[in-house]
Amino acid sequence: MARVLSGIQPSGAMHIGNYFGAIKNFVIEQGQADAFYCVVDLHALTQNVEPEILASNTLDLMAIYLASGLNPDVCTLFLQSHVVEHTQLAWLLECTASMGELRRMTQFKDKGGDQEGTRVGLFTYPVLMAADILLYDVDRVPVGDDQRQHLELTRDLAQRFNHRFGEMFVIPEATIPAVGARVMDLQEPTRKMSKSVSSPLGTINMLDEPSEIERKIKKAVTDTDGEVRYDTAVKPGLATLLSIFAACEGVAPTIIAERYERYGDLKRDAAAALIEELRPIQQRYREYRDDPVALKAMMELGAAKARAVASQTYRRAADAVGLVAP
Ligand code: ATP
Ligand code: LTN
What is the assigned CATH class of domain 3-180+292-321? Predict the structure, then answer.
């Protein structure tokens, strides 16, 4: 059975980009593969976050995972910091990665880049991500389109390690969803919807009230030519709405476009479809979030399952580079 792994940072409210680009596919994959999903809390430390906010965001994300349909009896659901081998393997990989290849990462450049005050953790972030993946002999990594370059780096690091120290790591592939891989901001549709860039009207959160969802979709930027057509270059605002609607229905955006003549009708039905898609998740979320004892037990179970795999891979890699076993 193929193995998959993915992770999301607990860095704020989950938006529908995270849902359609990642979480929805995690749920599908858990039935088809040996699936590992983590909350990458160590990655969230690359931003300047208050300790209590990080802790609360972490539990929020665990509850979102569960409410979205991830089942801890079917997949392995865990917290990155609970499995110490992630940071240990990251160090071994950092000692093979070059400054040049990390400097080329566009996410690093977008989030501040090469300046005197930039955190070292932000720079080495993709190496920790590579460790997350390579520890588990993963075949596929379901992520949104923005993670493509990080996956390429992971493959390069794995190949280099294998070449230098002997066959060690499985070379993983990214699986990017056909629809929903890049949900754009509703107000600035040339930029991806994002947790870290504040855009109150442009971002729809998974836990937004139905009235809020309707309002944001109604106010979404379109254009003035009035023709319903899927064209990301010429009509990026409309294309964003069409892809959100399409991701709810599981069809191509062009199919949705054929059904409509007026922007108003399209907006009304897109909002209704999205509200329906999120309704069951929102209902279940509160139950999980309000039960910290159950959340803790679930995280312990996940960490034990993850550790069993990660500790073996780490030891193999440590032996290979010449670290003497304890
Ligand atoms: P940040 O703004 O802090 O970078 P983010 O919103 O991009 O955060 P991440 O935690 O980096 O969220 O990403 C979690 C997952 O969601 C990743 O698989 C990523 O590819 C996916 N994702 C994030 N934003 C979008 C988006 N706008 N469209 C589709 N997928 C997305
Ligand atoms: N870098 C990713 C989050 C992430 C991840 C991973 C995704 C950290 N480790 C391992 C897949 C596999 C992001 O910003 N979305």
Answer: alpha beta
